[in-house]
Every structure is written in structure tokens, then in C-alpha cells.
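User: Predict the structure for this protein chain, please.
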Amino acid sequence: MGGTDLQVQALTALRSEITDIVVGSVFLFVGLASCLIAVMRRRRGTRVLLWVGIWSMLHGGRPVVDALGRMGLLPHWIQASVLYVDTMVSYVVLVVALLAWRELSRGKLRVFLRGADLVALAIAVAGIVVFLATGASKTLIPANNLVAACTLAVLLTVVAVPKLTRKFMVLPHRGVLLAGTLVFVTQAVYTNVMGALGQSSSPIWGTLGFAALLCSFGYVSVQTVFADERRLLSIDNELAIAREIQTSILPSGSPEMKNLRIAAAYRPMTAVAGDFYDFIDVDENRLGVLVADVSGHGVPAALIAAMIKAAMESIVPSAHDPQAVLRGLNRIVSGQPHDQFVTAAYLWLDTENRRALYSAAGHPPLLLWREGKLERIESNGIVFGATRQPDYPVCDMAVRSGDRFILYTDGVIEVENGKGEFFGDTMLEQVIRRNESRTASQLVDQLLAELRDWQPGSTAQQDDITLIVVDVVQPGE
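Assistant: Here is the predicted structure, written as C-alpha cells:
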């Protein structure tokens, strides 16, 4: 009879151990899957999945390790460290849980959770130090539980009140998280009441309570991530449309001129950019070239660039007067409510009368390659948007066959190498000198290749790049 009782007890104990191993393994698997998804996606919104995954693995790892230890299935060196790991997990799990909640919060609640997390971290460090020094593993657990209870009360209140949820949390489905939190709180209260009455409750209730909370939390976390993904996809689609629109406002090609050969390159840093260029080809002998650079990047800068394009139509009658062109564009840009400034350069070429006029608004200088020498033409006024009545001095130059005019934005000279050194004016001049015998389009291609070589392959482009080369040739060349 006694042998039978012992067998029943052993079988009951074995069932309990197997239950702990199975349930813990499920939490470990779910946590690992959540962490892998977060790592593979590598977006800010997926950090909540990372913390939920770690939270789940910490909760599931403890019963698995404890059960295997009781069954004598762990190597001795692992068995000796079980108490250390168990103590650390007891303290650290609250820190991870608060980090997960924080990812779904905003405003003052986010600040509160950050403070609570710092307190929990301090308690964890102190508790682990006390354990290592004295061997007492539960000394600061009451303080840890107090922080958990107070924080959970605040979170339950916020989740339960719709107005507070909308204000302080990012939740696509409040009801799911509320249900899971209520189940967990109910289980925790029941367990503590039973303990205060001197009665024990089945461990399964604690497992079910945590499972309800974790499942509800994981559900809203995934929904939040999906919502972010949909929002980002929508933004990407809108940016693609904006890119198409911006591309449509740029020249489709270079003008065919009698005595000019023109090549242009446009390399935006992002999907939409703030650089802009345009040509005003009055006839086969007269051409205006505009290059502009809006401060900043992205959609706001692109909108200003589109505004400049629209303004170009109104200044065509003044194309022969760089000062009038720049003043006209400045009036339109200055009248808009924005904080961005625009630099611009305008070159007028009249090959019939062998004359060139140039003026700029805070822009890098025009480069003139003539008879083996490079001249920097700096005829600058103030940037667009700084004042309503600027003065733009005009440089008057003779035009000769063999001249090469180069206009560009500062993205060309501000490309950095691995040492943080700019490509700069010196390198730009060297490339121009080495390629003086090449055509305009060949020079543009070579310069872009030099910029790619200068910048480390792993580094993203740091600014928009626009480059225009205009060669003056004899008819028929």
C-alpha cells in the first residue's frame, strides 16, 4: 500500500514537472518568435515586440529550468547557477515588463513609466548585490512587488478609462488589453488574498493570469506594429507619387542649342528633394540656366522647389536679366509662410552676341573653365526668403568658344569620405582639370563617379546633388 502511495506521489510530481516544462516552453517559444520578428523588421515600432518577447522568455524560462533541476536533468555547473539566475529574473522581469508597457504609452504616462522603470532597475541592482553578498534572494522582492502593484494600478486605470487611453496610450484595440489586464489583476488579487488567509492556490491560476495578460499585450502590440506598417506603406506610396510629380517638373532633357552642349545630373538624397534646376531656351542662341537649393530635405523642401518651378513661367520675359529673375523668384518665395531658405544661381548665355550674365543668391560660385584656367565667379546676393527687397549684383562676361560653365549645388562639394573630409573645391577643380578634353556629358559622368568613390560604400548620400555643365562650341561641333 505504501509503495502504491509513493508511486502515486511520484507520478503526480512528474506530471507537475512536465506541466511546468511544457507551459514554460510555450512561453519561451512565443518569446523567441517575437524577438526574431522584431530583429528581422528592425524598425522603431517593433521594439515593443522585442520587450514582449524577452518578457515572455523570462517568465517561461524559470519554470523550465526549475523543473529540469528538480528532475536532475541539468548538468552540475548549470544546476549550481539556477538560484542565481532565478534571483536575477525575479528582479529583472519587472524592468522588462515596464519597458514593454512604455512602448505603448505616450505623454505623461510615458514619463511616469520611465521613472517607475528606473526605480525598478535600482531595486533590481540592489537586490542582486544583496543576494551576491549575503545569499538572501528575497530581501527586496517586497519593494519590487510594491512598484509593480502601484504601476499596474495606474496602467489599469488608464486602460479602463477610454478618455485616458486615447490621451496616454497608442492602442488600436483597448478592449483586448483591458480584458487581459483585468484577468491578470484578478488572479493576482485572488492569490494574495488566499495567501493572507493561509491557504495556497494552484500555480495554474498564476500561469493562466500571466498568459491572459501576455496574449492581450502581444495582440495589441502586433496590431500596433501592423498599423505602423500600413502607415509607413501609405507614406511610401505618397512619397512615390511626390517623386513622380517632382520628376515631372524637372527638364526632361537638355536643350538643343546651336553653339552650346549641355549636360545635367540630378541625384536626390531622399525620395523627394529640395534641389531644382531649369532651362529657359529662348531660341537656338539664347539660354537661361537656373539652379536652386532649398534648405532641408524631403516633402517640405520639394514643395518649395515646385513653387519655384511654377514661378519660372512668370519670369520668362525677364530671362535676359539675371537680377530681375532672382528678384522675381525671391518675391514669390518670401511671401510663403515657411522657415526654409533657398539659394539659387542664374546664368544667361547669348552666343549670338558672345555675352554671358550671371548672378546668384547665396549659392556656390559659378565655375568658368577657360584656356586651361579655372575662374570662380562669385556674384552673390542674399538667399531667397531673407528679405523682400534684395540686391543681386550681375557679372557681365564675354563668351568664347571652348568656354566651359559649371553650376552645382553644395551637395557636390560637401560629400564626405571615411575620415569626415569634404570633397571640397580643390577636388572638384582637380576633376575638371583632368577631364578638360572630355565632353560635357563625360565630365558629368566622371564627376559623379569620383563622388561615389570618395564616399564610403556603406554611407548613404548626405545631400541632394545637382550638376550642370555647359560647353561653348563652334557651330557643327
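The radius of gyration is 35 Å.
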